Amino acid sequence: MACPVQFLCRGIRTVGLVLLYYAFSIGITFYNKWLMKGFHYPLFMTLVHLAINFCLTALTRRAMQCWTGKPRVILSWTDYLHKVAPTALATALDIGLSNWSFLFITISLYTMTKSSAVLFILFFSLVFKLEEPNPFLVVVVLLISSGLFMFTFESTQFNLQGFSMVLLASFIGGIRWTLTQVLMQKAELGLQNPIDTMYHLQPLMFVGLFPLFLYNEGLSLSTSEKLFRVTELSPLLYSLITLSIGGVLAFGLGFSEFLLVCRTSSLTLSISGIFKELCTLLLAAALMGDRMNMINWLGFAVCLCGISLHVGLKTYYSKNKGPSLRQLNSKSPELELPLLRQNGDDSAAEFNDEDEEQEITLH
């Protein structure tokens, strides 16, 4: 049995990882919203983020390869184009539409609408037979749908165009996360490590989103004084720095999610995600002036009940099943990170005391 000091250290570590995840997740939401007030090119911003993500992911893979001494997986062109491309396209559209919607809607409406992605993830999980049919899922769907309706009902800051974009992004997000789960579960591809998955997704995401950028923003951006028609160096540097900060935040978000799941469990990520949405709404009301009436708050509470029920059901059924091929064991050296690795004996004892099953369930 672990001593109280070990429990305390584990608790402090978990709180620190959750706070790190909150900082990047909430930070990039507010940062992108702030940036869109003066830089009306969300697709170009997304492309810059993808490029920065690819570079940082490549550096991380190189560091992991030097640490472990094992070469990282590189897919063949056949597997890359046939098996990774659909996931990359869905991911690019999800992120691109989400960022695009910030031009039209508030952070509150974005956060609430984006939470409906659980519905589409459930739907596509059933289609791809990743989720077993369950009568409780009907209750989950009703709660989340009712909560979303109540939140948007008589909203004083409702925008149909932005709402439609986020809803479409949530729908595509359901496809995205389902395909990502299938991709990571294919043992023959060797993409069980999320860093390797991110590395292979970024280039195809860039290529998939680039035509949409050219159609919607290409001509406008080429004649904009913020980048290509600048007359002074300082505005150009300001635009590049602000875009780069967003890219670093985007990479930090993905990396912090990976750390949280790797060192705790997907249940911790799911539960912390629920409270993160509450924190986002409270900060949006306090800092951005988002207005919400009592019906909106009640709808948010109903939606959170549906998400909480979904998390609880997945936890219950995963506890009553034996290990499957869909589970990733964090004890594998493949998932150990140099920055978190401690002395051999202490690390082994700490891992043996882990109570939660390390299962990567994509949300």
Automatic annotation (TrEMBL):
PANTHER family referenced in this protein's UniProt entry, alphabetically: SOLUTE CARRIER FAMILY 35 (PTHR11132)
Region ranges (Disordered): 344-363
Residue span(s) of domain Sugar phosphate transporter: 15-309
InterPro entries documented for this protein: EmrE-like, Sugar_P_trans_dom, TPT_transporter
Residue stretches spanning the membrane: 12-32, 38-59, 80-97, 103-128, 135-153, 159-179, 199-216, 236-255, 267-288, 294-317
Biased composition (Acidic residues): 347-363
UniProt keyword list: Membrane, Transmembrane, Transmembrane helix
Name of this chain's protein: Sugar phosphate transporter domain-containing protein
Family, as annotated: Belongs to the TPT transporter family. SLC35E subfamily.
Compartments where found: Membrane
Signal peptide: none
